[in-house]
Inverse folding.
C-alpha cells in the first residue's frame, strides 16, 4: 500500500464516500461499525433466524442456489449449505488481483452488511473488519466473475478466508495459508450460519471498487493531459487563442470542455514562446491534436462525471439477494446485476483510450521535422548519430494500440450460466479489469508526451516557457535529464510515469496555476 492513512472509517446505514473506499483500499484506513449499523444488522438477523428455523421456503436460507433454487434444504443442513456454497463458488483461476482491489471489494461488501439488509450477524461483519484492520488480504484469482449474481467467485475467495481456508497475503504482502495469518493476528475463523454465505458473495463490490479507483485516477490524468497539451503547444509553436473562455462555454456549453480549455489557457499564460509568434504567424490554424484538445479531454471529464454518478448511486445501494426488508420480508431481486456499473466501466475505457490517442498524435508531430516548426528530427542532440525520442513514440503508439483493443466493450457480451437460470450476465468484472490496464497505459502515454514536450520546449532556445510549464519542466528534470546524446531511455520514461502517477506533475503546475482542476 501507499502512504498510510490515519483515518478510521465508521460504517453506518447511510453508506460511504469515494474517499472512504480509496482510503481503505489504498492507504490502509481502519474500519469500524457505528451503533446504528450494529442495531440494523441485529434487527435483520432476527428475521433470518426465524425463517431458518421454520418451513417457509426462502431462497438461500431453506433452498439451494441458482438452478437448484427449488431444492428444499432441511434445517439441520442449512449451516452446511452456506459453507458448501463458499467452497464451491471459490472457483477462480489465474494470477491474484491487486491488493487494493481485494480491499475495496471487502470493504464494499462490509458496507452492504452495515446497511442492515443482508441478515448476517454482527460477528460476520466484524470478521471482515478484523481482516481489513490487520492488513490480511485474501488471494483472489483474476478470472471467475461474470458480473452477475454479483462478483461471485472473487467474493467467495474472500469468504473462504473468513472460514480459515484458502490463502491470503499478510500485512507485509507475504502469501501464506489463511490459518497461519489468522493465528499470527489472533483472529478466529468464522462459522457461517443461515444465509451468511450467500450474503457474502451477492454484490457488485469488485467492479464497483475498481470503478471508484479508476474515476479518481482518471480525474488526475485529465489534469496531466491538460498540462502536457499546453507543453506540446509551446514546443510546437501553437497558439493559445483557441482556448480563450469566450470560445467555449458561451458557444458550446459542454462542462468538461470549458474546464480543460481553462486549464490549458491558464497553463500558457505568460509564455514567451507563445508570444514570440503571436503577431506574425502565417499559420491560420493548428492541427486538431492541439486545437481540439479541450473538446477531447473535456468529453473524457464529462464521462468520468457520469460514471461517478453511477458509482455514487451504487454506493448508496444495498446489493444482496434475497434482501431483508424493514418489515421482515425476505425478497428475491435482481439488484446484483452489474449492468449499470459495467456500462460506465466500458465508457471510461473508450474515453481514456481516445485521450491517449490524441496525446500520441502531439508527440508524433513534435518528432517529425516536417511538422514540428523547426525542431530537429526526433528532438535528437545530433540527428543521424542520435535517434533522440524516435522509439519513445513507438512505445507510445504500442500503448495506444493496446488500449484500442482493450476499449472493445465487455458489457455487450453475455454468456448463460447456471443451467440457464442465470441466462444474462453483465461481464462487469471483465470491463473493470481491462479498464485498469487502460488507465495504467494512459499514464505511460502521457508520461511520454511529458518527456517529449519538455525537450521541445528546451530546444526553443532564447524563448521562455510560461511560468506554469516551466515549473513542470523543472520538476521533470529532477528525475529525467534534458537534451543530450542518446542514453538508456527506458528508465527515464518509467521515472516520468512515476511522476505522473504520484501527482507530482499536477502539484507542480498548481504551484503556479492555483485553479487547475
Amino acid at each position: 500500500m501507499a502512504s498510510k492513512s490515519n483515518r478510521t472509517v465508521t460504517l453506518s446505514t447511510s453508506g460511504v464516500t469515494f474517499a472512504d473506499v480509496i482510503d481503505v483500499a489504498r492507504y490502509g484506513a481502519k474500519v469500524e461499525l457505528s451503533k446504528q449499523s450494529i442495531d440494523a444488522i441485529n434487527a435483520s438477523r432476527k428475521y433470518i433466524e426465524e425463517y431458518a428455523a421454520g418451513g417457509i421456503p426462502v431462497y438461500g436460507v431453506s433452498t439451494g442456489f441458482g438452478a437448484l433454487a427449488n431444492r428444499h434444504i432441511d434445517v439441520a443442513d442449512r449451516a452446511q449449505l452456506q459453507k458448501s456454497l463458499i467452497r464451491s463458488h471459490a472457483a477462480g483461476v489465474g494470477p491474484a488481483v491487486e491488493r487494493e482491489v481485494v480491499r475495496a471489494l471487502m470493504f464494499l461488501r462490509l458496507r452492504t452488511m452495515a446497511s442492515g439488509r443482508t441478515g448476517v450477524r454482527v460477528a460476520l461483519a466484524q470478521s471482515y473488519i478484523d481482516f481489513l484492520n490487520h492488513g490480511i488480504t485474501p488471494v483472489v484469482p483474476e478470472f471467475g466473475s461474470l458480473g452477475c449474481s454479483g462478483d461471485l467467485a472473487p467474493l467467495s475467495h474472500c469468504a473462504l478466508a473468513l472460514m480459515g481456508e484458502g490463502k491470503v497475503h499478510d500485512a507485509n504482502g507475504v502469501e501464506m495459508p489463511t490459518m497461519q495469518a489468522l493465528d499470527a493476528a489472533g483472529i478466529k475463523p468464522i462459522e457461517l450460519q443461515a444465509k451468511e454465505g450467500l450474503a457474502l458473495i451477492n454484490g457488485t463490490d469488485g467492479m464497483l471498487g475498481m470503478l471508484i479507483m479508476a474515476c479518481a485516477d482518471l480525474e488526475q490524468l485529465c489534469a496531466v493531459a491538460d498540462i502536457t497539451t499546453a507543453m506540446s503547444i509551446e514546443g510546437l509553436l501553437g497558439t493559445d487563442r483557441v482556448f480563450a473562455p469566450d470560445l467555449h462555454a458561451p458557444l458550446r456549453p459542454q462542462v468538461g470542455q470549458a474546464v480543460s480549455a481553462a486549464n490549458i489557457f491558464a497553463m500558457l499564460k505568460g509564455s514567451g514562446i507563445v508570444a514570440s509568434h503571436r503577431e506574425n504567424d502565417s499559420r491560420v490554424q493548428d492541427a486538431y491534436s492541439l486545437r481540439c484538445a479541450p473538446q477531447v479531454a473535456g468529453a473524457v471529464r464529462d464521462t468520468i462525471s457520469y460514471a461517478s454518478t453511477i458509482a455514487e448511486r451504487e454506493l448508496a445501494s444495498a446489493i444482496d439477494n434475497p434482501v431483508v426488508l424493514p418489515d421482515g420480508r425476505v425478497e428475491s431481486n435482481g439488484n446484483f446485476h452489474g449492468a449499470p456499473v459495467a456500462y460506465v466501466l466500458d465508457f471510461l475505457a473508450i474515453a481514456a483510450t481516445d485521450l491517449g490517442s490524441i496525446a500520441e498524435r502531439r508527440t508524433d508531430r513534435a518528432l517529425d521535422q516536417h511538422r514540428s516548426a523547426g525542431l530537429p528530427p526526433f528532438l535528437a542532440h545530433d540527428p543521424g548519430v542520435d535517434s533522440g525520442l524516435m522509439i519513445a513514440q513507438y512505445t507510445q503508439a504500442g500503448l495506444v494500440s493496446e488500449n484500442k483493443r482493450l476499449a472493445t466493450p465487455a458489457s455487450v457480451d453475455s454468456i448463460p450460466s447456471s443451467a440457464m437460470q442465470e441466462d444474462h450476465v453483465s461481464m462487469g468484472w471483465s470491463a473493470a479489469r481491462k479498464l485498469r490496464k487502460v488507465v495504467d497505459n494512459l499514464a505511460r502515454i502521457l508520461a511520454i508526451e511529458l518527456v517529449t514536450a519538455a525537450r521541445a520546449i528546451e530546444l526553443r532556445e532564447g524563448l521562455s516557457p510560461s511560468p506554469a510549464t516551466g515549473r513542470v519542466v523543472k520538476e521533470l528534470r529532477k528525475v529525467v535529464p534534458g537534451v543530450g546524446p542518446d542514453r538508456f531511455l527506458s528508465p527515464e520514461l518509467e521515472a516520468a510515469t512515476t511522476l505522473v502517477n504520484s501527482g507530482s506533475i499536477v502539484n507542480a503546475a498548481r504551484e503556479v496555476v492555483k485553479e487547475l482542476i
